[in-house]
């Protein structure tokens, strides 16, 4: 594409159909609407959700992001809009690098 090509809505000099956008989808309204809008504009959208908590434990916890119902909601939006959605299991890494480190620092 020429350097003077018009910019797409993301500020890139190529058509939306030739632009892959990976959207971090929490399962909430904001990320779901952004993913849907980009898909409607013609972008090659891929949804990704990080699983940060135990799925079973999170189901019982209202408001816990990125597990249980949130993952289901993000997946449902992706399916309805016709783009792929992947769940990346970062539960152990998140617990070790964030939760336990925070707890240790707090106790110290």
Fold blueprint:
Blueprint lengths: L19 E5 L4 H12 L3 E8 L3 H5 L9 H13 L3 E5 L1 H17 L1
Parallel strand pairs: 1-2, 2-3
Helix pairs in contact: 1-3
Q: What is the N-to-C order of secondary-structure elements (H for helix, E for strand)? A: EHEHHEH
Helix content: 40-55%
Q: Evaluate the radius of gyration.
A: 17 Å
- Total count of helical runs of at least 4 residues: 4
Pick out the low-confidence regions: none
Strand coverage percent: 15-25%
CATH superfamily: HUPs
Report mean pLDDT, rounded to a whole number: 85
Could you explain the architecture of this structure?
The chain has one domain: Rossmann fold, CATH 3.40.50. Helix content is 44%, strand content 17%. Helix 1 (29-40) links the parallel strand 1 and strand 2 (44-51). Strands 1-2-3 form a three-stranded parallel β-sheet, with helices on one face. The model has no long low-confidence stretch (mean pLDDT 85). The chain is an alpha/beta fold and 108 residues long.
Give a concise summary.
The chain is an alpha/beta fold. The chain contains four helices and three strands; from the N terminus they run βαβααβα. It has one domain (16-107): HUPs (Rossmann fold), CATH 3.40.50.
List keywords for this structure.
single chain; 108 residues; alpha/beta; Rossmann fold; three-stranded parallel β-sheet; 4 helices; 17% strand
């Amino acid at each position: 594409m020429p350097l003077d090509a018009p910019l797409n809505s993301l500020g890139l000099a190529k058509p939306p159909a030739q632009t892959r956008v990976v959207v971090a989808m929490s399962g909430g309204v904001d990320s779901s609407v952004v993913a849907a809008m980009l898909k409607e504009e013609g972008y090659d959208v891929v949804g990704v959700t990080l699983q940060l908590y135990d799925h079973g434990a999170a189901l019982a916890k209202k408001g816990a992001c990125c597990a249980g119902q949130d993952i289901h909601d993000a997946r449902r939006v992706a399916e309805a809009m016709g783009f792929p959605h992947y769940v990346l299991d970062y539960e152990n890494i998140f617990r070790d690098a964030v939760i336990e480190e925070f707890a240790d620092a707090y106790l110290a």
